[in-house]
Prior knowledge:
GO terms for molecular function: DNA binding. By secondary structure, the chain is of the alpha+beta class.
Amino acid sequence: MSFDEWKKVKLGDLINFRRGHDLPKKNMIVGKYPVIGSNGVIGFHNEFTTVRPCITVGRSGNVGNPHIIDFEAWAHNTTLYIDDFKNNYPQFIYYLLKTLELSRFAGGSAVPTLNRNHIHPIELNVPTEIDEQKAIANILSTLDEKIEVNNQINQTLENMAQELFKRWFVDFEFPNEDGAPYQSSGGEMIESELGLIPKGWEVNSLKTIIELHDSKRIPLSKNERTKRDKIYPYYGAASLMDYVDDYLFDGTFILLGEDGTVMTEDYKPILQYVWGKFWVNNHAHVLKSKRDISINFLYLMLRNMNISSAVTGAVQLKINQKNLKSMKIVLPTDENLIGKFSRIIDDSFESYKVLNEENKILKQVRDTLLPKLMSGEIRVPLEGLEESLTEVKGG
């Protein structure tokens, strides 16, 4: 293969972008078609505006970020969407858009906005043969599909652990001495400040089972982070924000959002279960468990807590240390039950870690291949490709 099969074109020669359509939430009629905003799906409607697959890029808000779904959809006016692929392979176009950093073409100072007329003239080299476009896209999508499968497995593992925790420590249906569910089998319940609890359990404060390591946190500005090598994860209140060249923590910890994004719509805390070497800014509390209680048990307990009573601030929400530590919890005085539960769920958390580490490698491979495949630096041998991709999918 030679670059004779690649051609210099303008983006507007490959595809045509259109501006999305306004759809206030009050006008959404629940249906099967996703409504796509600049950050992804924001609702569902009974009408669609796009072709299938639907590819959008953020027009305002999260500017330039591409999304693809294999359905017709309603493209919101915070997006640009493709209404004509001009006989090009859609998945190839999606990965091509990921390499273009379209946010740099945004105009406006107060509210940056992406104009399709500013990106249609972008010049780039692309393969003209549809088979090569498919081959490139298939390599990248196979990696993404494997990542998604791992994510789904991890979500199932977490849901199962969460359900078991709720059954034992919220519904009080832990196994009694005969192996039967405690409360529904007539187990004795006693009054407490939090309502009826099993005999032999007590109400305590969260501070009795957590250690806070907030004093080790150090915030780094975006400018400071850009000067550092990308080696160790750098976490904020709600998510992984960046990578830096050093670390503050080493081990398994729970990060709990301290300010800004601190709770979900159903008043649960914003949590991150993290391990290895990493850095944390000053917008997330850093927690470990104590009293021989496993970090996995603590994570599941926090996932079940209504944190709203610990939140202060009307505009900028915050959970301070004092309020966090004073949150009330219910636990058995005999920690053997907690130990028994932890032994059941610990393997699931180990599997969770293994799959996450595998995803890190898959993402590194994908992100390394993406610009090289899209620039033609790496060419795809079309023969034998399908067999190779099947091996990747099979793990």
